[in-house]
Amino acid sequence: MFAVLAAAVVLLVCMAAGVGSPAMSGAARAAGSCDAVIDAELAFFVDVPGTVDESMSSEILARLGEQLDAPFAGVRRISLFSTRHRGTTPLITVCTRPPLFATLFGRQWTESALRSRLAGAVRAELGQTVAPAGSQTLTQVLADVSVSTYSRSAKNTLVIFSGLREKWRGFDPRRCGGVQAAIAAYRMARAGGVERPSFKSVTIHLNVIPEPGAGRDVSRCRRAFWNWYFGDFEGEGEGVTWEYLPGSMSDAQQLTEKE
Fold it and tell me: What totals of helices (H) and strands (E) does the chain contain, helices first?
């Protein structure tokens, strides 16, 4: 009996450490090393064309932490995207899964090194004031990611931090006169590519940077456009939630043109 118990303990320890598991060797691995089926995607998007104050920065990091700590099972890929960088290559991508004790007892768990790495990368993005020439719009990034491997799992969560102030060729939403004009201008700018993404088994958490003084009509028009943009969902857990961030952002009117 003692030998059986000892063997069971050794097996549990090995499983908790990832020993003998073809899926992972340790808590987190680089995306290129994900040699198991990815059960869930957690993608963060930073679209902040200015410098935010400390209260907003702290809240963004706190909301990032809440998503990292949410219980999950299986293999989860965590990625960080920024509109300051062209293409769908994330700044950071790791595959992770909870250790055995978290799976058995339902405890929330996040590897501290992973949390620190993500927080550092997000802070770096929040500290930028000028968008580089290779930057792109949030709609472009989301449309491209929606048809990539980063949103094809059984469960996909997108966490967005944005002021929703982008502009497209021929139209500036900050002077939005009507939602139909905004949609038409956007579709013309995206002609030949994905216009409105189709989100399958996707949950979106939209964290909006406030813009005091934008005006009621502009705010209504902008929200109506984004409600249309996020209007094609299907599958389990689908939907989008809106939540404003506290604090303010400087240099908000000095956005780099994105043509």
Answer: 7, 11
- What the block records as the tokens of 13 is 């320890």
In DSSP terms, which residues pair with 66 in a beta bridge? none
Give the pLDDT means over successive 10-residue stretches in the chain (259 positions): 46 39 37 68 89 90 91 87 83 78 53 84 82 76 90 92 78 70 82 84 92 78 88 78 84 41
In angstroms, the CA 246 to CA 90 distance is: 26
C-alpha distances out from residue 250 to 54, 123, 138, 223, Å:
12, 15, 19, 22
Neighbours of 13 (CB within 10 A): 11
* pTM, to two decimals: 0.79
In order of their start, the domains of the chain are 28-250 (3.40.50)
* Diameter over CA atoms, the chain: 78
